[in-house]
Sequence to fold (147 residues):
Amino acid sequence: MAIQLPPMSQEETSKWVREQFQAANKFLAENGIISDRVLTKDSRYLAPYVAVWKFTTQDRKELWLVNGDVPTDVAGKKAADNARDALRYFSFQWQLKAQNLMADEQAMADPTKQQYANYLVNRAETIYEVVDSPELWEAPAEDQSNG
Fold:
């Protein structure tokens, strides 16, 4: 199944990316992580669904952060070599979290936790489709050299 992107103007896309970047920085700050800079050459986005950012922190660590229409999550640099592998990592982690929740009878008695587990599975499957779609990872034609 191919990923269908809704039509967005350049202005709408830029606004979405800016909002996700601000939300990513806010998430880091709320978790006591102070970002130094974003490594834009390693970061990717698929507006309006998902953004995966590679940050350096003030204590000189590198990390991956994913946000958008997915659970905001963070992982150390060792989790992945590139944005595609980072998304694969997050997809797998969400599947594991959902599986653990679903295996917990007490958690599954709580409709909120049941809904969250289903949300994790849904987003993990969607993100895996993104990872598994080679056309989304090919360089744009203007970036390819002719020899």
